[in-house]
Specification:
The complex is a heterodimer of chains A (420) and B (197). Chain A has 420 residues and is an all-alpha fold. Chain A contains 15 helices and no strands. In chain A, helix 1 packs antiparallel against helix 2 and helix 10 packs antiparallel against helix 13. The chains are: A mainly alpha (420), B alpha+beta (197).
Chain lengths: 420, 197
């Protein structure tokens, strides 16, 4: 058994059920179904089981999210939403999927076929890869990477490439516009997004998501209010959701980068976007709201706590989508560079100073930040957050300064003869 | 402070989120309809109709077709007719209600329906048999005094022909059936008082 998988409950369960023999006694403690020498089958089946659960869970979650988003958006607009098939219309995503499956899968003649076909795969792949490090409950994750946060950032950035590939390969001007807008926006938002995570990593002292959860004596949303805010807004932009959905602005450019996609390819792109919201909510819950930990029963019902926190963020995403209109490109850029980036820097610097003070308080060895120290940090960081939002909000509001048109420049005034 | 406007916007959507949805689930739920609605499914009282075809003459679109023949029971008077055809082509009707205004005997009324969609245009023509069999729930348009009797076209029982007119007309039915009746027309309170003088 691979060392980083031995803590995983599901993996160990399947592995030991099939092939726990003498060699694996320290993990399983009893014999499995398979005879000796066939541990590799158990290894293979256990890995497949986890992958099956992850992939299907993500896609099923995307389907449920589509339904939930349509229902909630409808309620935000005083409508009812889909309510025809199944109780409260919960089978609506299945109807949508069947419709998309039986549609013709069109590839434009001018399109670059390979790149065009790769796009949905890359989008879904980057999403599913990022789910590998997400701890759903105690000891329930595919991999507890010690560079988990970096891994998420690296893997989820591949979506940008997929979006640009879609725009380029479609040979469609609207797709190209959407992709260009998207790349400009996504790369700008990567920077505050990553900087906002540095504070969390500094406090936890590790990039592993499990360590981050275990370091949260307080939810980091209190200890790192600025970081949570910047990450929340940045990830909204990374997910291409309203108010940052300029890359598929349906009222300006037909459907943006996925204009030419139809049928199952479109379904996969949509699934990746929708499951991306779930994954982002999961990361928000893990990094800033304490993941699986909770006041009651967090060891037995950690997954329930995680799901509740995830649903809270999902609701927040839908609420934001229902409220705000789409921003202009200059407003979006000003928001990223003039508002989010300074806030992330302030958060990063303040946290670094605090961690230096608290972490090395006891000596040279970096110590753990205890509960009381986290309370002190929260007491410092919350007023700091309010003050810096008030200060830098001014810059974000300005946008591009258009020089005031002077009347004289339009209407030529009769010149008075110059007199010496 | 920056962000307060955003918070205000969020509160607006949250207010809408909490309140019940505005949508009416049409086939299952219906909004209450106004009793004076001018709708399809004309209400026609055979007992009141003399076949004068005023409605057909007044119809701006000419979509009412009436064919009558002299009744055998009152040939000599020449004012009693059997109605053989009474077609209303509601596919072209604009629901102006002039036919109802024109009817001197209160025999024709608008209905309250709006769901008579058909696949064929010829199915949109209401025939005399349909008019005879239809449930008599006249719209109170042009006869709002029906509302005084607590009548509502959406609820309650259908109105009989005696109850719909401006005046009682008790002998008409028997006359149509062929009975000879000595007419003494009651013209309301004012004229009868004049007669006494």
């Amino acid at each position: 058994m691979v060392p980083f998988l031995q803590d995983n409950v599901i993996y160990r369960g399947v592995y030991c059920w099939l092939g726990g023999n003498e060699g694996n006694a320290q993990w399983c403690g009893r014999d499995g179904l398979l005879p000796g020498g066939y541990e590799w089958v158990a290894y293979f089946v256990a890995g497949l089981t986890i992958m099956l659960i992850l992939v299907n869970g993500a896609l099923l979650g995307a389907a449920v999210f589509v339904w939930a988003e349509r229902r909630l958006l409808a309620r935000f607009q005083a409508r009812r939403g889909p309510n025809r098939w199944g109780p409260w219309g919960i089978l609506q995503p299945i109807a949508d999927l069947v419709k998309l499956l039986i549609k013709e899968d069109i590839i434009p003649t001018a399109a670059d076929r390979i790149a065009f076909t790769l796009v949905p795969i890359i989008m879904l792949m980057s999403l599913l890869l990022s789910l590998a490090v997400l701890p759903f409950a105690r000891n329930t994750y595919l991999a507890n990477l010690n560079i988990g946060v970096l891994y998420i950032v690296a893997v989820s950035s591949m979506t940008t490439i997929a979006i640009f590939m879609a725009g380029w390969a479609s040979a469609n001007k609207f797709a190209m516009f959407g992709a260009m807008r998207g790349v400009a926006m996504l790369i700008s938002y990567e920077i505050p997004l990553i900087l906002s995570l540095v504070g969390v990593v500094l406090i936890a002292g590790s990039m592993s998501l499990v360590s981050v959860v275990e370091a949260q004596y307080l939810p980091f949303i209190l200890v790192q209010p600025l970081g949570a805010l910047v990450f929340m807004l940045g990830i909204t932009a990374e997910l291409n959701r309203t108010p940052f959905d300029i890359l598929e602005a349906e009222s300006e450019i037909v459907a943006g980068y996925h204009t030419e996609y139809s049928g199952i390819k479109f379904a996969l792109i949509q699934a990746a976007e929708m499951a991306g919201v779930l994954a982002a909510s999961g990361f928000l819950a893990t990094l800033f709201l304490g993941g699986w930990s909770g006041p009651f029963l967090s060891t037995q019902l950690g997954a329930l706590w995680f799901l509740m926190k995830l649903s809270f963020f999902v609701f927040l995403f839908i609420w934001i989508r229902a409220t705000f209109p789409r921003l202009r490109i200059d407003q979006i850029m000003a928001f990223a560079w003039k508002f989010l980036l300074p806030l992330a820097m302030i958060n990063f610097l303040a946290t670094a100073v605090q961690v230096y003070f608290f972490g090395f308080y006891h000596g040279d060895v970096p110590g753990e930040i205890t509960r009381n120290e986290q309370w002190v940090m929260a007491a410092i960081n919350v007023p700091l957050a309010v003050a810096s939002i008030a200060a830098f909000g001014h810059f974000a509001r300005e946008g591009i300064r258009v020089p005031a048109v002077r009347l004289e420049s339009i209407v030529p005034t009769p010149r008075v003869a110059e007199v010496d | 402070m920056y962000g307060l406007g955003l918070a205000k916007g969020l509160m607006v959507t949250m207010k809408n989120f909490i309140r019940p949805p505005f949508t009416v689930q049409y086939p299952e739920e219906r909004l209450p309809q106004h009793p004076r609605f001018r709708g399809e499914e004309f209400v026609w009282y055979d007992e009141r109709c003399t076949g004068c075809a005023s409605c057909a003459k007044y119809c701006p679109l000419g979509i009412i077709k009436i064919v009558t023949s002299p009744s055998e029971t009152a040939v000599l008077e020449g004012d009693k007719y059997d109605i053989e055809v009474f077609d209303i082509d509601i596919g072209r009707c604009m629901f102006c209600g002039l036919c109802v205004e024109a009817c001197p005997y209160d025999a024709l009324f608008m209905g309250s329906g709006f769901e008579r969609s058909r696949y064929q245009r010829k199915d949109l023509v209401i025939s005399v048999d349909e008019l005879r069999q239809a449930v008599k729930r006249p719209s109170t348009w042009f006869r709002p005094q029906l509302e005084n009797a607590q009548y509502d076209p959406q609820e309650g029982k259908p109105l009989a022909w005696e109850d719909v007119g401006r005046e009682k007309w008790p002998w008409h039915k028997q006359e149509k059936a062929g009975a000879k009746i000595n007419r003494t027309v009651h013209r309301g309170g004012a004229e009868s008082s004049q007669d006494k003088k």
